[in-house]
Amino acid sequence: MTLNAIKRLSLAMLGLSLAGLAGAATPPNVIIIFADDLGYGDLACYGHPSIRTPHLDRMAAEGLRFTDFYAAAALCTPSRAALLTGRHAIRSGMTHRPGTRAVLFPDSPGGLPPSEITLAEALKMAGYATALIGKWHLGIHEGSRPRDQGFDHNFGLPYSNDMDRREDVPGEARFRPDPPADGWNVPLLRNEEVIERPADQTTLTKRYTEEAVRFITANRTKPFFLYLAHNMPHTPVFASEAFRGKSPRGAYGDAVEELDWSTGEVLAALRREGLAERTLVIFTSDNGPWLTEREQGGSAGLLRDGKGSTWEGGMRVPGLAWMPGRIAPGVTSEAAGTLDLFPTALALAGQPSPAGVTLDGTDLSPLLFAGRAPPERPFFYYRGSDIYAVRLGPWKAHFFTQGGFGDPARKAHAPPQLFHLARDPSEQFNVAADHPDVLARLRTAVAAHQAAVVPGEPQLQ
Amino acid sequence: MTLNAIKRLSLAMLGLSLAGLAGAATPPNVIIIFADDLGYGDLACYGHPSIRTPHLDRMAAEGLRFTDFYAAAALCTPSRAALLTGRHAIRSGMTHRPGTRAVLFPDSPGGLPPSEITLAEALKMAGYATALIGKWHLGIHEGSRPRDQGFDHNFGLPYSNDMDRREDVPGEARFRPDPPADGWNVPLLRNEEVIERPADQTTLTKRYTEEAVRFITANRTKPFFLYLAHNMPHTPVFASEAFRGKSPRGAYGDAVEELDWSTGEVLAALRREGLAERTLVIFTSDNGPWLTEREQGGSAGLLRDGKGSTWEGGMRVPGLAWMPGRIAPGVTSEAAGTLDLFPTALALAGQPSPAGVTLDGTDLSPLLFAGRAPPERPFFYYRGSDIYAVRLGPWKAHFFTQGGFGDPARKAHAPPQLFHLARDPSEQFNVAADHPDVLARLRTAVAAHQAAVVPGEPQLQ
């Protein structure tokens, strides 16, 4: 059976399952708010001293705040592929290999394969209205575009906001909030149509928010899945007039504070429409902060390194889950991540996982709704197509280490470096020599995963 | 007029002022809870992922959380001298100079001079019951002891819990919670009497807490000042049986989580006695985390360096202010610190500042009770007797930099290194070249301070 045949069969089975639920109560909505390059330390509720995030702090206080929530990769494209498929990006071929670029670029031929079942496709088959508002970055060619991958509708940029750089705009002038004279020529799309080029980046967050609120309001009577994937605070950071120049943290803070406002607007719309208690809202980020971007990059707080790296700062990100009346307020240190959102959303929708598809995450419903910890399971820190590190319980072993950007070579470690993440969250003290038994368990977990994983056809060149 | 004569006159005037208030309502109580070597990043409400501090988080949510709160020095002895006198430690001679030790040791001849007016003395003259429960570290000789400096009563260790080290107990065994066989021979005092030696450090926090609750209960009908100066989480970290081995963060986390419990007990006692709305409670730390102590040391979060250093991590610490009904819940990024506690407490007590005494802080009452920012004022980062750095508004200039410990030499900077602490809280990007005007203002502030400051007779040898 080809992959596409498996996909057709899986979706058909989801459809049958839905038919069996006919007449049942409307299943809950799902909203995933995905920030771009927001670091672990960049919200006030994660300890930032000069970025003000009262709406996200309130969301955290009313919901569940994760201390150990992981993006599935340390870079945009593989992280987004993994979130939407519920699978490590290597399975869809959305990871780099030696000699290829690390993410999709405007001239890349590849994209998320049509054979992959996205969360949007699975929920659409279950009767959900689906929308991508914001950044895609999973391919611009037929078969890989948002509407080819289960979204009824999309509005946003096809890739990162620092692509299509205008070489005619010099240096710092690129960052000036003077559209259309800023330094990037990225297109703004509605579905497949370019409606603005260059996109006015200063109003992106504002327009994404308005679009999100319209989508929520329009779908108040049916289940919906909203994937609100902001372009901010990825460099170049921009904010609308109401936020520009306002944050003590500078331009980066302006962008994050506008995201905070945006999240407040989304939650307010849910409350206003009476949907708060039947909408799961997740807020997280695609990877850690871009540390080489100076003040345009964020902070990983006490975590080591940032975007691009498999040190904690590259992949551990803010993670908030909100559903008043269903999720009890609190803080959890259970390890979880974006790979878990696919099975969690399907469980919430009352749907089985797609048949014949290997998922890498776990349904978090017992944790979210009943405070029951998920079973211990390994988490694999991929950098491109290689596993650089693995976590099991509090233990993390690094087989390779490498800085996020500007660190050209990886260091191999034999034996691996071993850190206890709860006792040593900043990964300072290698205790491999004291715990050969732990290393053996971690090695076994990696071997079992690698023996079973089937890499997808490479999409990055 | 000698210093002692000034002190006598000042105290007499405080007494007259009190007489004038006869019949007025009971002034509010003041409690300062002072952790030892607790880092900026070590509480959940400041972003720590694996130390659980629900009571302090609740105190923060009910009160005012400071993002920019400073200890007055990066080491125990000068920090404590400054807090209790409201004056930079150089004024009382409690700072090191080249060739001297950095803090008081058990064999040190010096101590806080009798001529200094402590907050305990000032409040005692205003009719307050006063107690030190916990660590002193301002001298063990007559004239410098707690009861010589205004405390009616004291219970605790005379100095740090890692002093009086037992050389007969080898290496790691020193840290085992097996009293009296652990590795330190520190005495526990009640007033001037040694009541236990070595002190059982595992139950110190517990016993300090019980003593604090007894003091509160016993003084429910009169104003009181409680200085609850914990010995934890200064290495060697110990916790009582209920906390030992419980924190995911290990032994350090056990100690901090017991401090969290302790703070919860104090606030509960205030509520129980009906005193919550007329007691100002401050929670803070004497300096940043001791980074060279590996897992026995804490975390400065996103701040640079730690204890001993004038980078932010050495002196910026958690700061919480709580007084339900008087202090509105919130977060402030106004710069403030332990130097402000003396004038704030006196204002709360309705007392003028002692005549003829130069104070270095500002009354925070307008900020605490009305949300009004204090006037912009410089903050001086002393290392020993030298000013290494200065802050004014968001700007910080470093004239010298040096790591906390194990960094033998200071580096002089001409021009000074300049950082914008709100935009760059981790002090990564020196922007001195772009802001000569700011540097000039900062230099002027230092020059004005140095022209006026009168160093006290040196106490450290």
From TrEMBL, chains A, B:
Its EC number is 3.1.6.1. GO terms for molecular function: arylsulfatase activity; metal ion binding. The keyword Nucleus does not apply. Keywords: Calcium, Glycoprotein, Hydrolase, Metal-binding, Signal. Residues 1-24 form the signal peptide. InterPro entries: Alkaline_phosphatase_core_sf, Sulfatase, Sulfatase_CS, Sulfatase_N. Its cofactor is Ca(2+). It comes from the Bacteria. Residues 28-350 form the Sulfatase N-terminal domain. Belongs to the sulfatase family. This is Arylsulfatase. It comes from Lacunisphaera limnophila. The gene is atsA_1.
